[in-house]
C-alpha cells in the first residue's frame, strides 16, 4: 500500500494539489445492506492534466443511506453506535472466547445525521453534519477503473454493523479454532510472504484496461513511482463466494490493517484520548474495504474480523509466515 493504506488509485485521490468540481445525479436503485451510490464526477486542474484527471473525483459532500435489506427507508429508527469506554479494550476473551475490539469513536454514528465532505485544503475527509440528509448515495467515478463507494460511507456502514478487530496473536488463536485468514493484498505480494495458512483473495488487481486513461495511469505509475498501476476488482464479491463459503468465519488481513477509531489514545491512563482531524473516519485500508464488500455479499459482521496492524505487525511479532520470501 502507498499512503493511508490505499492502492495506487487511493494515492492519487490523496494528492494535495487536487481540486475538485462535483456534479450529482440521482440513482434510486437499492441494494441489500449496500450504500447505493450517487455518481460524482471529478475534474483536476489543467496543470495536473497528465497525472491526475484519470483518477476521478471525490465527493465534496454526502451522507450515508439508511436503507437496509428490506428495500424500505428506515428514517424513523436511527441506528446509533457509541464509543466503548477505554477500559474495554480487550479485544480479547470473555470466558475464553475472543470477541474482538470495538472502535473508539469521538462521536456517535447515526445514519440519519452523519454527513461528510472533502477538505481540499488539507486533502482529507472531514465530518460535516450540515450535509447529512442531502445525498442518499455516494460514489466516486474514476477515469480509469470502475466506480466505487467513498471511504466515509464505508466507515459508517462498518461501524454501524459492529465490525471488530483482533490483534495478530488473537488472529492466530482464532485460526486454530477454525477461522480462515484471508489475505486481500495483491496476488504477487501474497506469493512472496503471507501468514501461514492464509488464503489469497486480492481486493485489487493490476490495471487490465487498454483505454486512454488506463494507459495514462499505467505510464504515470511506472514513470513516477516505478510501480504497476492497480485498480479495484469489480468481481470481488463473486470471487469471494467462489473461494469461500457464504458467511464463513474469516479474518481479513492486508499490509497495514487501517483503523475505524476516530479517537487517538497515545498515553492510556495518563491523558484522555484526543480527536485527530486526520481520522474523522478512521484510516482506510484494503482489509476494511474488503469487509465492506463481504458484508454486501451476505456476510454477517459477527463472522468477520480484521487484523490490527496487518501483515506488518504479524511479522514484527514473529508469527509464522509462508511464501518465497517469508
Helix proportion = 10-25%
Structural class: alpha/beta
Largest sheet: 5 strands, parallel
Count of DSSP H/I helices? 8
Strand order of the largest sheet: 11-20-17-12-14
Pick out the low-confidence regions: 1-91
If you compute it from the alpha carbons, what radius of gyration comes out, rounded to the nearest whole angstrom?
A: 19 Å
User: On the 0-100 scale, what is the average pLDDT?
Assistant: 76
CATH architecture term: 3-Layer(aba) Sandwich
Rough shape?
A: globular
The CATH C-level name is Alpha Beta
Order of helices and strands: HEEEEEEEEEEHEHEHEEEHEHEEEHEHE
CATH topology call: Oxidized Rhodanese, domain 1
How many structural domains in the coordinates? 1
Strand content: 15-25%
Count of beta strands? 21
What does this structure look like?
22% of the residues lie in helices and 17% in strands. It is of the alpha/beta class. The protein has one domain (3-66, 79-322): Oxidized Rhodanese, domain 1 (3-Layer(aba) Sandwich). It has a 5-stranded parallel β-sheet with strand order 11-20-17-12-14. Strands 1-2-10 form a 3-stranded mixed β-sheet, with no helix packed on it. A 3-stranded antiparallel β-sheet has the order 3-8-9, with no helix packed on it. A hairpin with a 2-residue loop joins β5 and β6. The two termini are 18 Å apart.
Set down the secondary structure blueprint.
Elements: H1 8-13, E1 24-25, E2 39-40, E3 62-63, E4 80-81, E5 93-94, E6 97-98, E7 109-110, E8 115-119, E9 124-127, E10 139-140, H2 151-161, E11 164-166, H3 168-176, E12 180-183, H4 187-192, E13 194-195, E14 199-200, E15 204-206, H5 212-225, E16 230-232, H6 236-243, E17 250-253, E18 263-264, E19 274-275, H7 286-296, E20 304-307, H8 310-316, E21 321-322
Parallel strand pairs: 2-10, 11-20, 12-14, 12-17, 17-20
Antiparallel strand pairs: 1-2, 3-8, 4-7, 5-6, 8-9, 13-21, 15-16, 18-19
Protein name: Rhodanese domain-containing protein
GO cellular component, one term: chloroplast
Domain Rhodanese: 175-323
Amino acid at each position: 500500500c502507498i499512503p493511508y493504506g490505499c492502492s495506487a488509485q487511493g494515492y492519487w485521490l490523496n494528492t494535495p494539489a487536487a481540486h475538485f468540481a462535483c456534479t450529482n445525479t440521482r440513482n434510486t436503485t437499492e441494494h441489500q445492506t449496500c450504500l447505493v451510490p450517487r455518481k460524482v464526477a471529478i475534474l483536476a486542474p489543467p496543470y495536473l492534466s497528465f497525472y491526475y484527471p484519470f483518477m476521478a473525483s471525490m465527493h465534496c459532500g454526502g451522507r450515508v443511506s439508511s436503507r437496509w435489506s428490506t428495500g424500505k427507508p428506515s428514517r424513523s429508527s436511527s441506528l446509533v453506535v457509541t464509543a466503548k469506554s477505554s477500559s474495554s479494550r480487550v479485544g480479547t476473551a470473555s470466558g475464553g472466547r475472543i470477541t474482538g475490539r470495538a472502535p473508539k469513536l469521538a462521536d456517535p454514528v447515526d445514519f440519519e445525521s452523519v454527513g461528510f465532505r472533502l477538505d481540499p485544503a488539507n486533502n482529507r475527509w472531514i465530518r460535516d453534519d450540515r450535509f447529512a440528509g442531502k445525498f442518499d448515495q455516494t460514489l466516486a467515478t474514476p477515469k480509469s477503473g470502475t466506480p466505487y463507494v467513498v471511504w466515509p460511507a464505508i466507515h459508517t456502514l462498518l461501524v454501524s454493523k459492529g465490525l471488530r478487530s483482533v490483534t495478530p496473536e488473537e488472529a492466530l488463536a482464532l485460526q486454530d479454532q477454525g477461522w480462515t485468514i484471508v489475505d486481500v493484498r495483491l496476488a504477487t505480494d501474497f506469493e512472496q510472504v503471507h501468514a501461514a495458512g492464509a488464503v489469497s483473495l486480492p481486493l485489487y488487481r493490476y490495471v487490465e484496461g487498454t483505454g486512454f486513461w488506463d494507459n495514462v495511469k499505467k505510464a504515470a505509475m511506472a514513470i513516477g513511482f516505478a510501480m504497476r498501476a492497480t485498480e479495484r476488482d469489480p468481481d470481488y464479491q463473486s470471487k469471494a463466494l467462489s473461494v469461500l463459503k457464504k458467511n464463513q468465519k474469516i479474518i481479513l488481513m492486508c499490509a497495514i490493517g487501517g483503523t475505524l477509531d476516530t479517537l487517538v489514545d497515545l498515553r492510556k491512563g495518563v491523558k484522555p484520548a484526543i480527536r485527530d482531524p486526520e481520522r474523522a473516519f478512521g484510516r482506510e485500508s484494503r482489509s476494511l474495504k474488503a469487509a465492506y464488500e463481504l458484508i454486501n455479499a451476505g456476510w454477517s459482521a459477527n463472522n468477520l474480523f480484521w487484523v490490527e496492524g496487518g501483515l506488518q505487525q504479524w511479522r514484527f511479532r514473529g508469527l509464522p509466515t509462508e511464501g518465497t520470501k517469508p
